[in-house]
Amino acid sequence: xxxxxxxxxxxxxxxxxxxxxxxxxxxxxxxxxxxxxxxxxxxxxxxxxxxxxxxxxxxxxxxxxxxxxxxxxxxxxxxxxxxxxxxxxxxxxxxxxxxxxxxxxxxxxxxxxxxxxxxxxxxxxxxxxxxxxxxxxxxxxxxxxxxxxxxxxxxxxxxxxxxxxxxxxxxxxxxxxxxxxxxxxxxxxxxxxxxxxxxxxxxxxxxxxxxxxxxxxxxxxxxxxxxxxxxxxxxxxxxxxxxxxxxxxxxxxxxxxxxxxxxxxxxxxxxxxxxxxxxxxxxxxxxxxxxxxxxxxxxxxxxxxxxxxxxxxxxxxxxxxxxxxxxxxxxxxxxxxxxxxxxxxxxxxxxxxxxxxxxxxxxxxxxxxxxxxxxxxxxxx
Length: 381
Ligand code: HEC
Ligand code: HEC
Ligand code: HEC
Ligand code: HEC
Ligand code: HEC
Ligand code: HEC
Ligand code: HEC
Fold this sequence. Notes:
By secondary structure, the protein is an alpha+beta fold. The chain folds into two domains: 13-231, no CATH class; 271-379, no CATH class. Helix content is 23%, strand content 18%. Strands 1, 5, 6, 7, 8 and 9 form a six-stranded antiparallel β-sheet that branches. Strands 2-3-4 form a three-stranded antiparallel β-sheet. The chain has a two-stranded antiparallel ribbon with strand order 10-13. The radius of gyration is 22 Å and the shape is globular. The two termini are 23 Å apart. 32% of the residues are buried. Mean pLDDT is 84; it is low at 1-55. One heme C binds next to strand 6, helix 5 and helix 8.
C-alpha cells in the first residue's frame, strides 16, 4: 500500500499485458496455488518462522539470540517482527474472516475462502466468480494489514497482487486499500486489487523482511525471513553465535549519528529522498516519513539526537512508555540549563502541543516528528 517510491514508472505495456494474462489464468483456476508456498505451517510469530537451517551465507537461527541477549526478550511483539506474516497465520486468518460482513465486503461482494494451508479471496465480476490466492499479510496491524498474492510473470519474475481491501486497526474493519480506485474494476484481476510488477513487488518485500532471496526477479518465497528482525539491522550473525559473541560485525558502530539515522531511514525514508518543495509544515503526506520531519526540527539540528534517543528498537512501543515525557525532559528540564524551557505548558502533554498525531490516509494517523511550536489552527488538524 505504501510503496515509498513516488517515482515509480509503470512497467512496460508488454510485460504488463503478459503478467495480466498470467494472473487471469491463475485467477480462473480456483484453488490453484500461486508461487512457492511456505513449507512450514504458519506459527504465531514471524521471528519463529526463520528457518536458519535452510539459510546459507552466515545467517544464524534467531532463536539463539535470546540465550545471551535480553534485547530478544519481548522483541517478538514489536511491529517490526510482525510486519510480514504468511496469509495463513492464525491472526491473519481471523481478520480475513471479517471481510465478508464488513460494509465494503457486502457492497463489493467479497469474501475469503479458507482451506488447508491456503487462503483465497473470492469476488464476483459480472456474476462470474473469480478467486486469487493470498500468500502474505503486510503490516503488523498496529495501523493496518494488507494482503497480497504472488504470481510469476511471463519471465518468471515474482509479481504481486495487492488486495483491494485492507483491515484498519482504528475501525476494526475493512475498507479500501489506500491508493486503490474507488470504483471496482470490471476485470477479473482489477476487481481483486492492483497488480504490481517484479521490481515493485520486490521493494515491498525488501522493506518488510530480513532476508529476501531473489534471482532474476524471482523471489524464493520459502526462504524469505519475514519481518524486520535482528539480523536485518545487525547483519548475518552465524559467526557471532559460533564464536559465542567474540566475532563482531565490523560495520556496526562505525559511523556518526547521521549514519545511525540513515540505518532506520532506509525504510522510513531519508530526507534527501523527499523533494525539497514537498517539505513544508502544511504537507501532511510527509508525517509517515519520520526521518524527513525530524531532520527539520530545531531539537535534531542543535543536538546529538537520533531515532534511538526516543525509541528502543527491541521493545514494542507499548512496553517503552512511548507517550511519556521522559523523551523531552532528557534535554528540556530545569536540570539541564543548557536547553530552553517551555513558556506555555511544561506539563505532561508535550506531545499533544509539539508532536501531535496527524491524520493521514483516512483511518490512519501518524506522529508528526517535526517537533515545533504550532499555532491553534495547526493543532486542530
Ligand atoms: C553465546 C552467546 C551469544 C549469542 C548466542 C549471541 N550473542 Fe550477540 N553478543 C554476545 C557477546 C558476549 C557480545 C559482546 C558483548 C559486549 O561486548 O558487551 C555480543 C554482542 C552483540 C551485539 C553488539 C556488538 C556487535 O557485534 O554488533 C549485537 C548487535 C549482537 N550481539 C547481536 C546478536 C544477535 C542478533 C544474535 C542472534 C542471532 C546474537 N547476538 C547471539 C554473545 C552472544
Ligand atoms: C527493513 C526496514 C526497516 C528498518 C531498517 C527500520 N524499520 Fe522501523 N518499521 C519498518 C516497518 C515495515 C514498520 C511497520 C511495522 C508494522 O507493520 O507495524 C516499522 C515500524 C516502526 C515503528 C513503529 C513500531 C510499532 O511497534 O508500531 C518504530 C517506532 C520504528 N519502526 C522505528 C525504527 C527505528 C528507530 C529504526 C532504526 C533503528 C527502524 N525503525 C528501522 C521498517 C523498518
Ligand atoms: C521503502 C520501504 C517500504 C516499501 C517499499 C514498502 N513499505 Fe510498507 N511500510 C514501510 C514502513 C517504514 C512502514 C511503517 C510506517 C509507519 O508506521 O510509520 C510500512 C507500513 C506498511 C503497512 C502497515 C500500515 C501502515 O501504513 O503503517 C502495510 C500494510 C504496508 N506497509 C504494506 C506495503 C506494501 C503492500 C508495499 C508494496 C506495495 C509496501 N508496504 C512497500 C516501508 C515500506
Ligand atoms: C530496527 C533495527 C534493529 C533490530 C530489528 C534489532 N536491533 Fe539491536 N540494536 C539496534 C540499534 C540501533 C542499536 C543501538 C542502540 C542505541 O543506539 O542505543 C542496537 C543495539 C543492540 C545491542 C547492544 C549493542 C551495544 O553495543 O550496546 C544488542 C546486543 C542487540 N541490539 C541485539 C539485538 C537482537 C538480539 C535483536 C533481535 C531480537 C535486535 N538487536 C534487533 C537496532 C536493531
Ligand atoms: C523526540 C522523540 C522522538 C524521536 C527522536 C523519534 N521519535 Fe518516533 N515517535 C516518537 C513518539 C512520541 C511516537 C508516538 C508513540 C506512540 O504512539 O506510542 C513515535 C512514533 C513513531 C512511529 C510509529 C508511527 C507513528 O508515526 O506514529 C515510527 C515508525 C517512528 N516513531 C519512527 C521514528 C524514526 C525512524 C525516528 C528517527 C528518524 C524517530 N521515530 C525518532 C518520538 C520520537
Ligand atoms: C537530545 C535533546 C533534545 C530532546 C530529547 C528534545 N529536544 Fe527539543 N530542542 C533541543 C534543542 C537543542 C533545541 C534548540 C534550542 C535549545 O538549544 O534548547 C530544541 C528546541 C525545541 C523547541 C523549540 C523549537 C523551535 O522551533 O523554536 C521545542 C518546541 C522543543 N524543542 C520541544 C521538544 C519536545 C516536545 C521534545 C520531546 C518530544 C523535545 N523537544 C525533545 C533538544 C532536544
Ligand atoms: C498546551 C500546549 C503546550 C504544552 C502541553 C507544552 N508546550 Fe511547549 N510550547 C507551547 C507554546 C505555545 C510555545 C511557544 C510559546 C512560549 O514559549 O511561551 C511552547 C514553547 C516551547 C519551547 C520553546 C521555548 C522557547 O523559549 O522558545 C520548548 C523547548 C517547549 N515548548 C518544550 C515543551 C516540553 C518539553 C513540554 C512538555 C514537558 C511542553 N513544551 C509542553 C505549547 C505547549
